[in-house]
From TrEMBL:
Enzyme Commission number(s) from the entry: 2.2.1.6
Reaction equations catalysed: 2 pyruvate + H(+) = (2S)-2-acetolactate + CO2
Name this polypeptide is given: Acetolactate synthase
Domain Thiamine pyrophosphate enzyme TPP-binding: 441-596
Top-tier EC class: transferase
Lineage: Bacteria, Bacillati, Actinomycetota, Actinomycetes, Micrococcales
Length: 631
């Protein structure tokens, strides 16, 4: 039997829900629709059914789904799968050191390539170790299929050894999940899992398969069509809503395009660029949308929100029209919601209807795939320009340019003799170049990487945006490098985050995955320390990690790198920053870990304190723009 569980309520163009389903994300092999049709004519499966075990059926199903790599760890309940997996010539298995690493690696692979990432774990603790990466993928709308072994069907519910109800546990953090206890159901369920994960609003799908189903004999038959009643995501937007959005954009005096990660998930960056050019409107890109519009574009104002640019924050606050594309009005963007963009008419386009109006009241809701939304909006906007003329945005741009000049992104060198982390990260971006992939952990280094690296293309910036998962960077960078082996991949990590998942350096060394890790080592839990500085009277409770300053380093990251078979470098002087980065860039046959000893007192600015209005953005400590807040 198969049990399917849907989370409630459904979600949007960025995470989970039982509504999403759309055209496949580029490069396409993730959606089963075309693959099923092709299988009928070209696949050996079409020649007729064959007798296999359930475990063999899983491997065959992965092959038919276009999977080329999976990340996992074997264990008792999933052991039947690992035997036939060894014989597959089409699916590469990468043995990770912790299930969390496998989940984040699958996520990094998916984010870098647009394809579905796959991870495997055994029952009980193996499966529960996947909960964090599944929840992470869910928040950030990453297409992922997690396959877990389960105890034999007759033991389910008896508290058997290494039994955990992973379907129930992950119910709130998956787009959909399945429990399979009949081997005959395996091909159909896996086909459905890949289709659900990759269509509509992408997200993680869990397939929990009992050991008895893996060991049973079955007839393998790849489904020729998918039957998913109730799963019909709307991809084509309503023409009336498109016309109204075009009219508003053509007549607004202070418009802002608010770009979210859904644009990247939809593969709609080219269409977005066309809309930005045609509209003449300023655009902001959220933490999850960095790279959706090139930073070099003159209409790009940078990142909005808690640590966004003053210009991006101010533009949203003063806008008379906000066109939100694949964004979810997250609290880190809006600040105090009741005071966010008080005078703006709101157009909100998203693949997930549950996101529209969830946080911010919307005047023009548009449900649809963003690539189709933008393709329909462009000609309508041209017609409105013919009817009304191009809008006069000269005064708006004059105001924006004044903010840009007055409040540019910047930093001051620390006076304690340590490196400025902003300088280190900026130079990594400049030396490595825009064709590289940059993956961040969570905290100060994440914000600095979002601020000081210039992103010129989509899928070049990976981070844990919604869940904020420490330990994300190293395994996600590993997965990204597997998916994009010809690109340089940097993990920009903190000394706290790095210690959570650095065991995956062993995976990288053994499997020839030469990622580069920049440890921004301030010897503390940096973002927590910043909040303790600002809001807790500099009482630094349990944030000193003892990793970088003084004579005692616990651990010594250079020695740790060496122990894992990686190259360890250390940089403590500004004069050595460029040479150290270039040395790391020269090493392409091993992982590299660079320990950058930075100031513990460096802070992320600008900043909007949690729960206050974006009007109160601070450019630096105690310094706020002096605009008329009643205006």
């Amino acid at each position: 039997m198969v049990q399917g569980h849907h989370p409630a309520p459904p979600r949007t163009a960025g995470a989970h829900g039982v509504v999403p389903s759309v055209v496949p994300r580029p490069p396409g092999p993730d959606a089963l629709v075309e693959r099923v049709a092709a299988a009928a004519s070209s696949s050996p499966v079409a020649a007729g059914p064959e007798q296999v075990t359930g475990a063999q059926a899983i491997v065959r199903s992965l092959e038919e789904s276009g999977v080329d790599v999976v990340f996992g760890i074997p264990g008792g309940a999933v052991l039947p799968l690992y035997d036939p997996l060894m014989d597959s010539t089409r699916v590469r298995h990468i043995l990770v050191r912790h299930e969390q690493g496998g989940g984040h690696a699958a996520s990094g692979y998916a984010h870098a390539t647009g394809r579905v990432g796959v991870c495997i774990a055994t029952s009980g603790p193996g499966a529960t170790n996947l909960v964090t990466p599944i929840a992470d993928a869910n928040m950030d709308s990453i297409p992922m299929v997690a396959i877990t072994g389960q105890v034999g069907a007759s033991f389910i519910g008896t508290d058997a050894f290494q039994e955990a109800d992973i379907v129930g546990i992950t119910l709130p953090v998956t787009k959909h999940n399945f429990l399979v206890t009949n081997a005959d159901d395996i091909p159909r369920v896996i086909a459905e899992a890949f289709h659900i994960a990759s269509t509509g609003r992408p997200g993680p799908v869990l397939v929990d398969i009992s050991k008895s189903a893996m060991q049973a004999q079955t007839t393998f038959s790849w489904p020729q069509q998918l039957n998913l009643p109730g799963y019909h995501p709307v991809t084509k937007p309503h023409s009336k809503q498109i016309r109204e959005a075009a009219r508003l954009l053509a007549t607004a005096r202070r418009p802002v395009l608010y770009i979210g990660g859904g644009v990247i998930r939809a593969g709609a960056s080219a269409e977005l660029r066309a809309l930005v050019d045609a509209s003449g409107a300023p655009a902001v890109t959220t933490l999850m949308a960095r790279g959706a519009l090139p930073d070099s574009h003159p209409q790009h104002l940078g990142m909005p929100g808690m640590h966004g640019t003053v210009t991006a924050v101010a533009a949203l606050q003063k806008a008379d029209l906000i066109v939100a594309l694949g964004a979810r009005f997250d609290d880190r963007v809006t600040g105090k919601l009741s005071s966010f963009a008080p005078n703006a008419t709101v157009v909100h386009a998203d693949i997930d209807p549950a996101e529209i109006g969830k946080n911010k009241a919307v005047d023009v809701p548009i449900v649809g795939d963003l690539r189709e939304v933008l393709a329909d909006l462009l000609p309508e906007l041209a017609r409105e320009h013919t009817r009304h003329g191009k809008p006069d945005l000269e005064g708006w741009w004059r105001q924006i340019d004044d903010w840009r000049e007055t409040f540019p992104l910047g930093y001051t060198d620390p006076d304690d003799g340590h490196l400025a982390p902003q300088h280190v990260i900026q130079r990594i971006g400049e030396i490595s170049g825009p064709e590289s992939i940059f993956v961040a952990g969570v905290g100060q280094h994440q914000m600095w990487a979002a601020q000081f690296i210039r992103y010129e293309r989509p899928n070049s910036w990976l981070n844990s945006g919604g869940l904020g998962t420490m330990g994300f960077a190293v395994p996600a960078a590993m997965g990204a490098k597997v998916g994009a082996p010809d690109r340089t991949v940097w993990a920009i990590d903190g000394d706290g985050c790095f210690q959570m998942t650095n065991q995956e350096l062993a995976t990288c060394t053994i499997n020839d995955i030469p990622i580069k890790v920049a440890v921004i080592n301030n010897s503390s839990l940096g973002m927590v320390r910043q909040w303790q500085t600002l809001f807790y009277n500099e009482r630094y409770s349990n944030t000193d990690l003892h990793t970088g300053h003084g004579t005692r380093r616990v651990p010594d990251f250079v020695k740790l790198a060496d122990a894992y078979g990686a190259v360890g470098l250390r940089c403590e002087s500004k004069a050595d920053v460029d040479a150290t980065i270039r040395r790391a860039m020269e090493i392409n046959d091993q992982p590299v870990v660079v320990d950058f000893t930075v100031s513990p007192d460096a802070m992320v600015w600008p900043m909007v304190a949690a729960g206050v209005s974006n009007d109160e953005v601070q450019y630096a400590r105690g310094i706020s723009p002096a605009w008329d807040r009643e205006d």
